[in-house]
Design a protein that fits this description.
- This protein is of the alpha/beta class.
- Helix content is about 35%, strand content about 20%.
- The strands form 2 sheets. The protein has a 9-stranded mixed beta sheet with strand order 14-13-12-11-7-10-9-8-15.
- Helix 6 crosses helix 9.
- It starts with about 20 loop residues before the first strand and ends with a strand.
Amino acid sequence: MMRILPDMTELTGAFPPQSRRLRLGIVGGGRISNTQAMAARLTDRWEIVAGALSSDPAKARARGASWHLAEARCYASFCEMARIESGRTDGVDAVMITTPNHVHYDAACAFLDVGIDVMCDKPLTNTVADARDLVRRTQETGCVFAVGYVMSCFPMIRQARDIVATGGVGRINQIHVEFMQDWMIPKDAGSADHVKWRLDPKKSGPTSCTGDIGTHAAHLASFVSGLELREIRAEFHVCGAPKPLEDTVFMATRFEGGIPGTLMATRLAPGNRAGLRLRVFGSEGGVEWDLECADTLKHSRFGDPDRILTRGHGHGISSDVEKLVRTGRGFPEGLIEAWGNLYTEFALAVAARRDGIEITHDWLEYPTVFDGAAGVDFVDAAVRSNRADGDWTAIDG
């Protein structure tokens, strides 16, 4: 069988080319699948060849046609898709799962069990038990399992992580993260088809805002700081029109070593659309990043003028970050490119597995099934803390 990656002795520097595009399947045909597919194609490392886009056979064929899929590879069942694709010589190398939350576990199991690598949206599952079972299955099968914490794939977030890891802020003493949106302000916002399931506990799980954007915030804080989140005090709120699940969450946080912080997330903040902001402060300085200004990173050293780093090549950007950069400084990159970075690293992990190449731990930094399980543990602790009137609650993991 032809190797996908060239012979490599060192997994360093620029990402290597592939001998062919990897074959990607889709489970779930909603809005996020279009975003991820666009990003996967951007990398030139994937081609989309199959999909389970509806449980209704006629709709599955019609939606598949809109994706330019062959009719024989438009499935009405992800179980059927996993069975048939795993038996084809040109079957999918991996699958993206972009369904509502309650389908993630069953779909992931179907593909892991036949040896197909998985990219799954977050939260990974709706229960801790299911998340831990996916970790077990991933380890037993040896499959690659990536999770859609795309915010960690912005180049300037990788730069922030590098600055913190190399002592650029000194000893971390506090971490603050928030994710503010405003799209749920209209009273009828919850009636849209793509929103209804997010407010249905049977599909979304025990949370809405917390499991959706709160997990992004929690993952980002740990990713950049390098510290595990250990304890939280959480309060859920419905600040807008009545709804069965929270639209806002406020948290006090404690990371390993007793490092304190805060985490806030809401969909009821007028004027905020993609208001994800991270601040990590230490004994000698700090880093600050804002999703709405994603190409820049503020790095402060106490007593010195602040530095504003901009995405590009050189000018203080580390070589590990440069390989995720597509355009020159001043020409903006955004969310699609960040998804592209995630799908690039996922592709290289899939290709390496199929070529029998052992990956060093620091070559690829895409979020894995372990990060997904940590997110489920975070949501579970938040639910327990809220039910206990905001008591400090340990994150089990």
